[in-house]
Inverse folding.
DNA sequence: GTTTTTGTTCTAGGATTACTATAACAAAGG
DNA sequence: CCTTTGTTATAGTAATCCTAGAACAAAAAC
């Protein structure tokens, strides 16, 4: 799985990393049981500090996407709390859809985009 | 329109303010042509600094949700660039949906949530 | 047994951002 | 004339982000 960090972005590096790993899981580029690179190796590959990678991994652990084992490192393992996931998603969606709605994006167009995104993922499986 | 700031949140105050105003527009609590409170008055009401409100207004202007007039202050006026809005929304949706998908939220459930949110807004009009 | 690699922890410094605080300005309106 | 408007400048505090170097115990590799 290829990770691309935009150093010009105003989004923190550890957040870009977190989001890309989550999208990697969603697209099945990363599967349950897969191990992520060690913090030192990934930091070296990307050209950032070890602690920045460690922070991304810690956030992923806290959010229930990986478990961290001293021997094997970070392992993709999903702690599914669907009720919580739905509540959190609704909150995020409200902000995203409000912005879109102000710009005259219709409910149908949103549905279309959702389908597009899900289709992209299913193709890659 | 009621604005609620969570001072314990890790989200910046000016971003909370920006998002609530955008949601206010989406729900028609704020309509095109309406004037927002002056930066000093709103800052006083909320109990924050004038410059924090000013920053929120500046972001809203840059994103095309309000125009700012020296006489009347910030006025809701939507600069609709739908192509850009769709592109930006898709990028945001990708992250939100990836998180949900990992937690076994289905495409159908996302559609349901989208409808729920749009319905909330339409009821208030 | 020795060496390497693993995550973890500590301290520390630099850079940037967020927020607050004053103060002052020109423009418009009452 | 006085008030209110957004705007700008300066300044300080606090928090966050990122980097850096060092060290530790535990597990794996040799």
């Amino acid at each position: 799985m290829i990770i691309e960090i935009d150093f010009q972005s105003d989004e923190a590096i550890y957040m870009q990393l977190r989001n890309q790993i989550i999208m990697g899981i969603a697209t099945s580029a990363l599967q349950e049981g897969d191990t992520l690179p060690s913090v030192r190796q990934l930091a070296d590959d990307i050209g950032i500090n070890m602690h920045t990678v460690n922070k991304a991994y810690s956030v992923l652990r806290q959010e229930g996407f990986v478990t961290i084992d001293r021997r094997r490192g970070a392992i993709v393992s999903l702690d599914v709390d669907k009720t919580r996931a739905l509540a959190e998603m609704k909150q995020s969606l409200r902000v995203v859809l409000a912005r879109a709605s102000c710009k005259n994006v219709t409910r149908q167009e949103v549905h279309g985009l959702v389908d597009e995104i899900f289709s992209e993922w299913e193709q890659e499986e």
